[in-house]
Amino acid sequence: MARELEKTNVVVAGLGWAGSIVAAELSKDGKNVVGLERGEEKKTEDYLTAHDEYRFAVGHEMMQDLSRETLTYRNSTDEEALPMRRYGAFLIGTDVGGGGVHWNGDTWRYHPYDFEIKSMTDETYGEDKLTDDYLIQDWGITYEELEPYYLKYELNSGVSGEQNPMGPERREPYPTPPLKEVPVLTEYKEACERLGYQPFMIPASTISQQFVNPDGQTINACQYCGFCEKFGCEWGAKASPIVTTIPTAKETGNFELRTHANVVEIVKEDDEVTGVLYIDTLTQEEVFQPADVVVVTSHTTNNTKLLLHSDLGTPYNPETGEGSVGKNYCLHITPEVTGFFDKEFNTVTGAGALGICIDEFNNDNFDHTDLDFIHGANIALKQTGKRPIEQNTVPPGVKNWGAEFKKESIKAFTQSLSSHAQMITLPHRNNYLSLDPTYKDDYGRPLLRVTYDLTDHDRAAHDFIGQKIEEILTEMGAVETHRRELPEHFDIFPAHNDHIVGGTIIGADPETSVVNNYLQMWDEDNVFVIGGSNFPHNGGYNPTGTVGALAYRAADGIKMYLEDNRQLAEAGEVAGAN
Questions:
Q1: Residues 6 or more apart from 499 whose CB is under 8 A from it?
Q2: At CB < 8 A and 24+ separation, what contacts does 317-325 make?
Q3: Which segments does the entry list as coiled coil (predicted)?
Q4: What is the pLDDT of residue 88?
Q5: How many whole angstroms separate alpha carbon 378 and alpha carbon 545?
Q6: Which residue of 87, 300, 374, 450 shows the fewest CB atoms closer than 10 Å?
Q7: What is the spatial distance between Cα 224 and Cα 208, in angstroms, rounded to a whole number?
Q8: HSE of 81 in the Cβ direction (CA atoms, 13 Å)?
């Protein structure tokens, strides 16, 4: 029998960017908020000795423990799914702040085309541009509606950047100037310009100068130490929940942070969601936290898993096309080309989002009439800081051991550069999430099962973008280039992809989506689900800025729900609802 606690206004399951934004905004509004996180609370000072590549980047110390909770994956329904035993394609964070602590800091706005991809594609290229197997759909919200929330997230994080020449005009400039344009970025920029492109600096939450956000939280200036992705920032210069939103929530006096609390079920009694059930990971005790509103803000995989475990919404069936929970699972495929040069570059220092990029082959910025794909990718060269274990490159044909490897890797460490792209992937009817019938987690509950394989669309876009990257590095002076090719089938390891999305998608139609444009479940009006799981498809940018914007909008929706206690999607009853 679970121990029952005192009821609260709002319970938030997961305290990464989405959960901490909701917690901060609602507690500032006077609501009582309980935030549940399965891991520990970490602060900036806990990462003062975190420059350990083996411990964090190879050993994945900041990630979900796969020996206790993992997932299974397969390429098709004809195969048996097997458990993921090591990280590769994506990283599931744990501890307070989640992925918002170990991220690189690339902070993008999705393009207006992304939000209306179905209607805009049909209008430009006709309804038969793609086969019916690709489940693209509009998001049920426009860029214009989300734009104020993008700005709010950028102000929270002090984002450093400049106007994208091929993006929508900004109402206000970025809060802080771009990061430093180091020599290697200048050379890449000049090569792009010679090819007729318009390069610009990547918008970064590893910020260029100290900034005090509207809530009074200070984010420090980046020191360019080169330890961002998979690491916590020792200087408090990477905007994260532990630097911004968590302190803001705590200062209100209305927020309770509860760690070692692993939410395993959303509880529904007499056709009404009444709270959440969690496991105290220190004592293994089951605890029931009642709440007026339940907010699910964990990783993409865990958001979907929690709804499926709780029998909320209708699971997606790939054979009939019915149901939406688990539908539209996508990830980022990352075309990458390594160039080998007869000159040296000093790239040991850097920052997670220090880079230069182009958008000529992203969104619908170019004509796709004669191409076998839509959308595209943002192409970039980044100086994230070069580390010897995972970034030890050698030319093709060199064995990864022995005297030749040592000689070539020492040479290539300073004489090679890799340029990559964040590439669109579209949802396919056979790529989805479900519960595994065989394997269970540490609590005896079914693991989440991923069914995913590469598509013809993936291959066509990957080949096109890879060629464009190769041309830039050749123009930059590479004497040899090596393009990473896609395997025959998707494999969760090694990592040539990341940023998984889908499973609890946003939309305007309850028949084809899980949540409305305030991220409120169609089927349960006091449950809000927020995160990358809301994306109906992946775009050509990193997703975090869009997750943050959606979280700020959802916080407004939850405030209105608590005040009016009525369905936000009902036409005309709430200003801004579609």
A1: 90, 331, 332, 422, 532, 538, 542, 543
A2: 318/77, 318/429, 318/430, 318/432, 318/451, 321/429, 324/505, 324/507, 324/511, 324/512, 324/513, 324/514, 325/503, 325/504, 325/514
A3: none
A4: 85
A5: 15
A6: 87
A7: 10
A8: 27
Distance between CA atoms of 541 and 405, rounded to whole angstroms?
Answer: 35
Tell how far CA 418 is from the center of its chain.
Answer: 22
Asked if residue 241 has a cis previous peptide bond (ω within 30° of 0), the answer is no
> What does the DSSP 8-state code read for residue 58?
I
**What would the pLDDT profile of 173-223 be if each residue is shown by its tens digit?**
999 999 999 999 999 999 999 999 999 999 999 999 999 999 999 999 999
Instruction: Quote the CA–CA distance of 231 and 301 in Å, as a whole number.
Output: 21
User: Would you state the structure tokens that stand for residue 438, as one six-digit string?
Assistant: 């065989």
Query: Could you tell me the CA-to-CA distances from 465 to 381, 444, 488, 535 in Å, in that order?
Result: 14, 44, 18, 22
Which whole-number Å values give the CA distances from 247 to 41, 174, 257, 381, in the listed order? Answer: 12, 23, 11, 34
Provide the 10 A C-beta neighbour count for residue 170: 16
Work out the percent of the chain whose per-residue pLDDT is above 90: 91
Spatial distance between the Cα atoms of 312 and 557, rounded to a whole number of angstroms: 20
Q: What gap in Å lies between CA 190 and CA 193, rounded to an integer?
A: 5
C-beta separation of 65 from 441 below 8 A: no
Task: List Cα–Cα distances, 410 to 79, 341, 376, 391, 404, in angstroms.
Answer: 42, 13, 35, 11, 10
Active site residues: 499
Residues forming beta bridges with residue 211, ordered by sequence position:
219
Q: Copy the structure tokens of residue 313.
A: 């919404």
Residue-wise DSSP of 387-439: -TTTT----TT--SSHHHHHHHHHHHHHHEEEEEEEE-B--BTT-EEEEEEEE
DSSP 132-164: TTB-----SS-HHHHHHHHHHHHHHHT-B----
Three-class SS of residue 502? coil
Q: Is the CA virtual torsion 170, 173, 175, 180 positive or negative?
A: positive
When pLDDT is cut at 50, 70 and 90, the band that residue 569 belongs to is very low
In degrees, rounded to 5, the angle at the alpha carbon of residue 22 between the alpha carbons of residues 18 and 25 is: 135
* CA end-to-end distance (rounded Å), the chain: 42
Judge contact between 203 and 174, C-beta under 8 A.
yes
3-state helix, strand, coil in the chain (%, to 5): 25, 25, 55
Domain boundaries, the chain: 3-564
Of 380, 377, 381, 356, nearest to 365 by C-alpha is 377
Q: What is the DSSP letter of 505?
A: -
Cα separation, 329 vs 426, whole angstroms: 9
CATH fold label, 3-564: FAD/NAD(P)-binding domain (3.50.50)
Q: What are the b/e assignments for 517-530, b being 16+ CB within 10 Å?
A: bbbbbbbbbbbbbb
Q: Are 37 and 256 in contact (CB under 8 A)?
A: no
| Cβ atoms within 10 Å, residue 487 | 9
Q: Are 36 and 276 in contact (CB under 8 A)?
A: yes
Sequence-ordered list of residues with C-beta below 8 angstroms from that of 292, at least 6 positions apart, any chain: 7, 8, 9, 10, 526, 562
